[in-house]
Design a protein that fits this description.
By secondary structure, the protein is an alpha/beta fold. The chain has 12 helices and 6 strands.
Amino acid sequence: MPSAADLLERCTFPGPGEPLSCAVSGGADSLALLALACAAGCRVTAIHVDHGLRAGSAGEAAVVASAARRFGAVFRSVRAPVPPGPNLEARARIARRAVLPEGSATGHTMDDQAETVVLNLFRGAGLDGLAGMRPGPVHPLLSIRRSDTHDLCASLSLDPVVDPTNADRRFLRNAVRHDLLPACSYAAGRDLVPVLARQARLLADEASLLDQLSSAIDPADAATLAAAPLPLARRAARRWLRSADHPPDAAAVERVLAVAAGAAAATDVAPGIRVRRRRGRLVAGPTG
């Protein structure tokens, strides 16, 4: 069983004395995040987000508050009601992000990374999606396994909260976690979690290189964009659209490239937003 010191060598926390807000639900991964962040010497604020989705959430907050006191972290509990609608997981994630400070650390492990890569493959998320989550202070546990966080909690006599929804196969991530990845690992004759995590690291490096190369392209210059190698043109167009607060899908990017090449006069990239070519420049503005 690895010690906290062994695990810290594989983590990417900020340096000692640096402030760090940690999202701590009370589960094994987040409690391990809290314990390791404090062991790394960070000035930790443990934030419990209560969505009010199930009974007992006050007790879960108490588990986090107790652990925070034990490890010398500041504790804060915030409510984040989830609005009605489809895709509960996505709505809860948006609600959490809205109340957590920017740059808050989460307890995502290597296993979560592998699941994320598979889910992004299902969504057709391209290179950036297959690169998964990036290691760093926001995701400091990506090089340790879920079993490591459970072992650490056991060694520290921590009693993690068990979220029953994590076993519900109606949620796609749970089906990937409990059914698909084990079946694929069995078929491959090896544990695929480290394989997928390693692939994500390699693809993240390639994504960073493409970003660097595409940064030299002026995406609003139609002729320059049309002449650029297609992978770089796509990234430049995506960067331009995103900077204008219009997160694009792949089809929208391709339509913008068609406008740049003169194959189309204009295209809609978001509700009420159209990209046009004027005097050799691409302009994003309201439709009409």
